[in-house]
Design brief:
This protein is of the alpha+beta class and 142 residues long. The chain has one domain. Helix content is 20%, strand content 27%. The chain contains two helices and eight strands. The chain has an eight-stranded mixed β-sheet. The chain is globular and about 50 Å long.
Length: 142
């Protein structure tokens, strides 16, 4: 029995070393409408979908060059917050994957506002007002 022990030990070690790599699940975020977010931006089509707690969804589309973002905003869930001056902004939670160097906070501005060089998302004024008053999180998708 002692003669087989090293062989069994080596085989068990080899099998257990390979097991975690293949058994490690990859989890992608799953977003639930009306539960985790109350607004959606399809950024390539410049389409905002606002989802009130009561009533029908409202779609706002604006193809103005003064709307959107010059830098594509990473897809995922973003929380609506305010900066130190009380201006609205989006904040990426840890579940939203950001490219290297992309800021975790993005200013929300009305379409046509002056660009100060920071990464910002320009939103039609009616949608920006709605987001300020009623939205806690935004799902950004393609």
């Amino acid at each position: 029995m002692l003669k087989h022990s090293p062989t069994v030990l080596i085989a068990m070690t080899a099998l257990s070393a390979g097991a975690p790599a293949s058994a490690t699940p990859v989890y992608e975020p799953i977003y639930i409408t009306d539960g985790q977010y109350t607004a959606t931006l399809l950024q390539h089509s410049h389409r905002w979908r606002l989802q009130p707690l009561r009533g029908d969804e409202v779609d706002i589309v604006d193809h103005s060059k003064a709307c959107g973002s010059s830098t594509p905003v990473p897809n995922g869930l973003w929380y609506v917050s305010q900066d130190d001056q009380g201006h609205p902004r989006l904040v990426a939670p840890s579940v939203t994957a950001l490219p290297t160097g992309f800021p975790q906070h993005i200013a929300l501005r009305a379409c046509g506002e002056k660009d100060d060089g920071d990464v910002a998302l320009y939103v039609p004024a009616v949608a920006l007002n709605w987001i300020n008053d009623y939205v806690g999180s935004v799902l950004i998708a393609d």
